[in-house]
Amino acid sequence: MKKAIAIALLAAGATVAQHYSSGGELALPDYRKWVYLGSGVGMSYTETSRENPPFTNVFAEPAAYDKFMKTGTWPDKTVLIAEMRESATNLSINKSGRVQTAKVLAVEAEVKDSTKGGWAFYGFENGAQAGKLFPKSAACYSCHEEHAATDNTFVQFYPTLIETAKLHGTYKER
Domains, the chain, ranges and CATH? Predict the structure, then answer.
C-alpha cells in the first residue's frame, strides 16, 4: 500500500522524501541521487577560521527542485540536505588547493512541512539514519529567517537558483 501511495504521489509531481519515525525523527533519504545545488568550503556564519576547512554540499529532492524552477519557491514537503565533508590538500597528485575526502563530518536537513509548522531543521549525528529535530531555539531558525534570500533558504549561495528566484520575484538581496 505504501508503495502504491508513493507511486501516485510521484505521478502527481509531489515529493516523497519525508519519512518520519513514530518518535518524529526524519529518516535519512538517499540524497546523493538528488539535484546538487552547490558547495562551499570553510563557510561559517561566525568569524571562525579553520586550518582544515570542511566542504558543505547541498542537495535538493528532485521533485522539489523542479517545482522551485517553475515557481521560485520551494513546495510543501521539500527536503534539502547539507552534507559537511572533511577537506584535504596534498592528496594523491593534488599539490595545492583543497579536495573533499570520504569522511562525512555531519549531515543536516532543512524540511518544509506545513503539517509540522513550516520549515524545520534536523541533524543526523555520527552516521545516524534518523535525524533529530533541532529545537526552535537553535540558531539556524533565526539565521535563516533573517538572512535567507528565498523562502527560508540561502539561495544566494546556489548560483544555479539565483536567476530563477530573481525571475519569479522571490529573491531578496542579502
Answer: 27-167 (3.50.70.20)
